[in-house]
């Protein structure tokens, strides 16, 4: 939604700087298969070919420099800093590394710079256009068409949507955030990138954790089950304000990233794990609306609030679930991972908010959508199909996501149907069992490096606590109240610990935002002088052994080359 | 059921013309695996061997004519037309192509004729028997035993149930109705086949679309939610009569096909997509019973109606679901495709009818069966397992099937449990979301060639409309009524457009029934002079790359031959 | 639980006899993957390496005897019988075969004995320790350290948890109880093993069948739906007492097995099918508590009963479901088989008992757990994924398990929520349909050899009967009562037949307990002098053809060796 807007507002300053790919088309194209593409868009297909040709110079390792001019053009573009229009962005951004302004050295050096040191490749194209519009002299020069070719090629090779398989092939770890050793990336690993480039979508997880805490403390203060605790409502208010301010800060920062590094945002959107985090901003807003302190909004909320916050969720639902169902590369059995719960839980949260604004039927609609897809995701994740690559072998914080959805479903059903009946209890108890199941494996949760994504693993605990409070309202006994209290305590402790850790990492150690390598993978694998065999994305062959005969190594090489090509087009 | 009947009534005119395979046995045999088969039926196994030997001459390309007599026998059998008993069938059938009576030319020519021009291979065996019984002189001739061998061989190679994998290997398209370029078929592609052979089971889809419209207009006329529209009941009556007459026409035609081309019908039954359409006739009958105009049947229907219409559904349920569960070749993860919804929706329609005749418990039974299998089908289709071959990459009208089942489940639950409660609403909203999900991808539905199968994609829209009317009864507000109206309008428009298209295709362009290539695939792949590596039916190896080493091509050839054999017996 | 206890009480007699692997660690280790293992336990990893080296002499066929001393040590240990402490065990055990006390012959002979004739390898380690503690002179000998090495190697190669894939690779049949022809086993096939080693966990199935009958006859005697039958309560009492006595006998025997052959028990625990039978003892206890005759326990049961019987189930739930979800080797898509229902049904039985003791909320908790996992298991089994190896092609008694879970779920829901509502009926009807589905395929159930595991296939029938009686209480009509009666009759007949068969097999033919080959598979495949291509455990390559080229057999050999290694570490 926002991405589109950003795009549309870009002035097409240079008419012959072809802005080839619009986001929505890009994405649709992926859902269609090739022949569809060929049939309906012959012109576009031709375009593709053209671009592929112009694309070559970007593959520095494979291609002998056949046309040194290209390198020069790219370097030219690169060398010039953005002159106006993004001053505000610069303020927050870290100082650029010097070598991106490479001067006019040898072509080799420039090329290496372009690839390694140039953060411009992730810039929003509109800002590139603006730069270009400031260089009118270039229009007259004879290298103009070549320049266009080169920039198209650059667009194509770097900014075109990275195939889903590529992420699985190049990245590793349960959050697909570590680059495999064998992979090369587009940006320099050894120096710090601009702040905005290092600011991942996962930062909304902080807001998730805090805003759900606001709901929890509101429930603790107001629920009949925990009234005996005499929690003052001021805690709810203060946490809510904190969550709100963090949300504002994170939103502004990420909006800046959208404005200046749209290509990086796109890459996050195409990342099989990260795409689920695009649901987070809306969920946070709804959390804040649900947990709004009574002193701020005394009566019922206006349904418009629900409409505004729900629109992105429904839009993303249609997008993401459609990809699962119709999908080629992003079919569910490939992309399913515990983060997929995040794309389901939004519906239940929306249902809770719908009950709060009084639109019960809308809530039931959302609950139904959420439930249908929760069922599919739950079964798929439990089966752990061999085609699903993103699932880590070992347990990991990401598994706490399993708790969030049934807990939210339980609260939502209770809210929209007015009673905490069999179905709501079933959902609640499923969440509780999964919680137990993770707690007894608590030692698996140690030994992982802290990252900002951890935050999103706290809100499931909070959601479970809130569901337990709702349950304790229905079944008021010592056990249920004790459970509610201890779970609330655990989740609050966890959030406090993470909050302190985050502050320490952010301001003391300044290691909160390491280079976000996951977005900088190359679109195709770039091997040595000859393209090496790429592990095919969702390849079942992982379970098959390749013939390890040394004397037919030629076969293997050839073989793997085919695989390589295969992956690219599949 | 019908197939059985037809078969049983066949007179065994010639005692030594062995009618080896009865339909039910055929099918059971598939469910068992080989060793079971060997242990329990040693006689039969021996039979098989015999047949396999006599089978050889049918593989024209692979086998050097070792026994030209066989060709002659086949041709003899072929050449004689059916002399009596099927006069009625002839009336509807198109004139036979001349070259099936080939005279007594060279063996080569005869063979080619047999294969290419002979529609008799799909004839009901009983009519062949009748032919033979009219040729008593042949009994005395010395070639009699050879004749039997040959006809057995012919039976075996053509009429024996085609393995499920073969359909996936030879056919393509979301409805598995297009033959791959590399495949050869048994009948001539370049001329028009007899009408009955070109009349697919999918024609019952027309009745599905029309009869569901009758229900819709009955609901529009009688529902309190749409009473303000003042729809006259005459519309329901006229559509109902139209649907009834179309059903009668289609049923008679298809019964004739069963009578004269039972082998073709069998092949449709073994087709992984088409088998689901065998549920259609019963569903149509139930639709007509549900949508019967009040002036025709004023009171409640008699339960006998339900029993009669439901029997085939239950029988097919046991058959088809048993294959999914116990299945070797037809296990669910292989055959699942959107049409599978058709084999599930019958249960829900049966439940609605059960509620109408007053047998609530029977309805609950059917609802439970339907729901259990809907769950499995829904999850399986959403996951899009790599083993499932039938799922097209792109979206297709066939995806509208997704809407039908939850909508019908919702109506049925409301009808049998007397209230449109949480579960019914959940099902309804799931249907609604899937509807939205398809509508936003409306451009995927363009560009497909019209075929009679399109009809079956209209009844989901109608079912959704009826469910919306039920919902609007429960939640009478502007939005729900508006939704009910617009969905009804859409479905009626769609049906009208299709009706006109069908009439135009049928009578103006006369292209409604093209050659039904899908039923004429060879049982085994028949390649050129060298057998190419065959893509194995449900082979996961699609994802694995074959070793492309040219110097070990011999290995590949051997390999593929094995695969071929493998496929046939698996 | 019990396993742990047994272990903990073992006196560490010999300090330098390193008891390397404790059961829980062993198991956890499997859940972690290798790098985790390496990181956290460097010492242990080193240990492994050491052991692997000392392990070599155990692979008799591959390795040229490089160190004959090892063989001697093993033989020494083996030769000595247990001198004290297990006298009681000896009473029930069959006399040991003579050749396990091999004296001090040639090293070769001793090695063969060790492997083939030595039942000690499955002994509880504590008893081995005891043996050793009686041989103090060995401490002084110089071969002591070597001895330790050897015994560690022995522990490692035989007693370390066999990888899940190994079971699938080496065993066949729907119960994974037959050893493939190509496999070698650790114990002699041609002579009778000690009774305890031949006593499988499946024997608790007898108790399952009998105790569920007790419930059935209690229900028949007391239900309003069948009161007209005037069943005397004495039948319930007598069956209940019989079931109780059988349970006691089986429990004592299996406890002895745990005490003396803990390693064999462990192997049963790691067996993908048998692990589900570890739920059986608790389920039997709960069955007995549910079916307790009114004359024995007139009032409500005390909740403590539920706690005691439920604890092992919850413990195993956490264990087994955790493996499914987090699993590497035991992920659900690999180990799912109809017996998995047994690990789900325990929750529903627990819910019924919870309702009986008055703890409704606990029952709802269990029902939720059970339902969530039933859903996953049901869908997974219905899909019949190609990764799931345990599923037999043909139908088999094991499929009756499908009936048990929905029937129990139905009864449980009715009991804990107090009404036999829509959900309970849905579950009940699903069970009924699956029952029908199996009955129409009744001929598939013939021709299988009787085994004690058959018993566990009777309790689903009984459960279905009880559910039908509950249903008949709600819907009292001729059909429901007739159904209840006929199903009860069928299940009782089945149990009677099996009871007689079991008695005949046990005492007349004495063939009830054949050698339990499934527990004696080697940990790694031990081929002849040339390694044949090994079918990889959960290998999808089963569907792919191996290159059958004889001239590149070297490639194959190498290939299979790699696969072998792969399987072990994966």
Q: What is the β-strand count of chain A?
A: 2
Strand fraction of chain A equals under 5%
The biggest chain-chain interface is: A-B, 52 and 39 residues
Oligomer: homotrimer
**Fraction of helical residues of chain A:** 55-70%
H/E element string of chain A?
Answer: HHHHHHHHHHHEEHHHHHHHHHHHHH
- The Rg value of chain A, from CA coordinates, equals 25 Å
Tally of helical segments of chain A = 24
Runs of chain A in which pLDDT lies below 50 for 5 or more consecutive residues are 1-115, 130-159, 527-570
* Terminal CA distance of chain A: 27 Å
Secondary-structure class of chain A: mainly alpha
Shape estimate of chain A: globular
Overall pLDDT level of chain A: 70
Explain the overall architecture.
The structure is a homotrimer of 570-residue chains. By secondary structure, chain A is an all-alpha fold. Chain A has helices at 2-8, 23-31, 34-40, 42-55, 68-79, 87-92, 107-117, 125-133, 137-140, 144-159, 164-170, 204-222, 233-260, 262-270, 280-290, 303-326, 332-335, 340-357, 360-383, 401-417, 422-439, 459-474, 478-508, 553-569; strands at 171-172, 178-179. The first copy, chain A, has a two-stranded antiparallel sheet. In chain A, a hairpin with a 5-residue loop joins strand 1 (171-172) and strand 2. Chain A is globular, with a radius of gyration of 25 Å. The first copy, chain A, starts with a helix and ends with a helix. Chains in contact: A-B, A-C, B-C.
